[in-house]
Amino acid sequence: MLRSSVVKRFFSRSAPRLDTLILIEAAGGKISPASLSTISAASKIGQPITALVAGTQGAQVAEDAAGIGGVSKVLVAKDSKYDHYLAEELAPLIKDVVGSGYSHLFVAASAVGKSLLPRVGALLDVQPVSDVISVESENTFKRPIYAGNAIATVKALDSTILASIRASAFTPAVMGSSTAAPVEEFTGATTESGNRTQFVSEELVTSERPELAAATRVIAGGRGLKDKETFNKLLEPLASKLNAAVGASRAAVDAGFCDNSLQVGQTGKIVAPELYIAVGISGAIQHLAGMKDSKTIVAINKDPDAAIFNVADIGLVGDLNEVIPELTSKL
């Protein structure tokens, strides 16, 4: 008599290894605050974090990156073609690094990150998640849509997850807060870039004021300041008293009141300082998208119906030419 039997075998499957790669941006040998915020975002996943430093200044930056809390390893790609963060050169490098065993790539949602991430996504055939403001899990994120008027929860289904991080949504990681992580040179780049873009020059706007995107206090001027002379005359003394960065609405930038590097808004810098003072800014939705996450918003405008008052914690209706000098003198 033959007796059939069913044999059940149970195989244990270990969870896939999760490793996050962070691109470190630096200028003048100093790591950008946006990159430090990106590391903080990556730490929410709770997995090993590798920092990638590219360019001939890599050795100096890598030493600083190795001491950032949460970083477990630093990779350095020492080549002059990476010095100016040309996305056409960086994308093939990052594709090769990610292919060496990383499940996540996080970059800052900066000009560099926004130019780079779509190219990496195309090379890896992966859909990036942009402008992340909250990390819910290893594959679920929150990001603003409709100029920040709604928040979408996005679940990435790709095996490799690419994301850009909005720096203002995360507290920057602290440098020098941990034992130095090991530093290794990455020599495994094999993908040819086919780059036909050449770096020609750059013009840097220098200022003694805090950097706009990372400042804890920001004073921004709008069209209500009328002209460049009034913009500087009213805002500069007030910014000096408060040790604040100076920003502007797009209307002020387009009118030539200041350099476009100071623009705050959907098409400019996204800021979330402790204090944001909006002077002569009506409150267009595009501007609000860049600053409404500020901790305390003060609006000064002569129009009591200006939209900026809808998001302001403190509102003052009055003539700028009288209010700002008086406020400056009292400070």
UniProtKB/TrEMBL annotation:
Compartment annotation: Mitochondrion matrix
Record Pfam families: ETF, ETF_alpha
Superkingdom of the organism of origin: Eukaryota
List of residues binding FAD: 223, 249-250, 263-267, 280-287, 301
Main location: mitochondrion
Domain Electron transfer flavoprotein alpha/beta-subunit N-terminal: 20-203
A GO molecular-function annotation: flavin adenine dinucleotide binding
CC annotations in GO: mitochondrial matrix
Cofactors required: FAD
Signal peptide feature range: none
GO BP: any one term: fatty acid beta-oxidation using acyl-CoA dehydrogenase
Cofactor binding note of this UniProt entry: Binds 1 FAD per dimer.
Keyword vocabulary terms for this entry: Electron transport, FAD, Flavoprotein, Mitochondrion, Transport
Described purpose of this protein according to its UniProt entry: The electron transfer flavoprotein serves as a specific electron acceptor for several dehydrogenases, including five acyl-CoA dehydrogenases, glutaryl-CoA and sarcosine dehydrogenase. It transfers the electrons to the main mitochondrial respiratory chain via ETF-ubiquinone oxidoreductase (ETF dehydrogenase).
Subunit structure: Heterodimer of an alpha and a beta subunit.
Family of the protein in this entry: Belongs to the ETF alpha-subunit/FixB family.
Protein name, entry field: Probable electron transfer flavoprotein subunit alpha
The species this protein was found in: Scheffersomyces spartinae
Gene designation: ETF1
